[in-house]
Amino acid sequence: MQYKCGTDQTADRCTVHTAKQTLIVHNVKMISTRFGGFLRHVRHTGGAQRFLSTYTYKDGIGTIMLDNEKTLNSLSLEMMNSIQSHIVANQHQVELRCFILAAKGRVFSAGHNLKELTTEQGPDRHKQVFHKCSELVDTIRAAPVPVIAQVDGLAAAAGCQIVASCDIAICSDISTFSTPGANFGIFCSTPGVAVVRAIPRMRASYMLLTGLPITAAEALEAGLVSKVVAKDRLHEEVSNVCKAIASKSRSVISLGKKFFYKQIALDVSSAYVLGEQVMVDNLATTDGREGIRSFVEKRPPRWTHKE
Fold this sequence. Notes:
By secondary structure, the protein is an alpha/beta fold. The protein has two domains: about 190 residues, 2-enoyl-CoA Hydratase, Chain A, domain 1; about 50 residues, Lyase 2-enoyl-coa Hydratase, Chain  A, domain 2 (Orthogonal Bundle). Helix content is about 55%, strand content about 15%. A six-stranded mixed β-sheet has the order 1-2-3-5-7-10, with helices on both faces. It has a four-stranded mixed β-sheet with strand order 4-6-8-9. β2, α3 and β3 form a beta-alpha-beta unit. The N and C termini lie far apart (about 75 Å). One of its GO terms (molecular function) is hydro-lyase activity.
C-alpha cells in the first residue's frame, strides 16, 4: 500500500513514513561513512599488506608469498612493509626453522613500483622507498633462521636484489635475472650493492651496465643462485632444502648464520679469531654438547633448539 502526503486522512501515516525514510537515510549514510573509513584504514595500514603478500606456516616452514600479479609483484612500499612484517612477526617462533620467499605468477618481482618514483612523489618519498628496501634486506640477513628465495620467473632490479640478499636461492630453469634500471633512466645502484656481493665484479657490471638478463644457468654459474632445477621440481627441491635445515638445531643454525655474515666484513685474520671464539661458545651450548655426545654414542641427536 502506498501513502500520499498532503491529505488529512494520511497525515499521521505520512509523518511516520517520512520519519522512517529519514532514519533509513541517516543509517545508510552512517554505515557508508564508517565502512568507507574502514576501507581507507585497510588501504593505508597493515590490513592492505595481507593482500599484497600472504604468510602460511607448516612443519617448521614459514612461506611468504608475494601476491600482486597485477603489478608483477612490484616492491612498492606496502609490499616491502608486508614482507618485512611477516618476517618480524614470526621469526622468533620456536617451531620455525626457515622462511621461503616465493611469488605467484610468472614474475618473482619486477623491482620497485615506478609509480612511486615519479617527480610528483618528491625526493622524500623516493628516499623512503629505497630506505625501506635496505631495511628489508637487513631484516632478511638478521633473521635468526635461513630465508630461501624460491624463484620461478623473472627477478628484476630490486627483485634481483632481494634474491641476492637471501641466504639460499633456488630457481626454476626458466627463470631470468636482470638489473635493467638504466633502461628507464635510473641506474640500479642499490640492487647492485647486493648483486656484486653475490657474484664476480665483471658479471655484475655486465648486468648493471647493459641491463641485459642472464639465464638461470648463468646465474648459477655466477653464484647468484644456489641451485637450478626443472620447473616441475622446484617445490620439491625447496622442500628438501627446508627439511635438511629443519633437521638441525635451530639455535646452532642461528648462531652460525649470525657469524657467517659478521665475518664477511672482517679481514681473514680477524675472521679466524672471531670464528675460534664462536666455535668455543657453540660447544658450550646445550645443543652443541648434545651433538658431540650423540656422535660419540652413535645415536641421533635430540635437539632442544634453545639458545
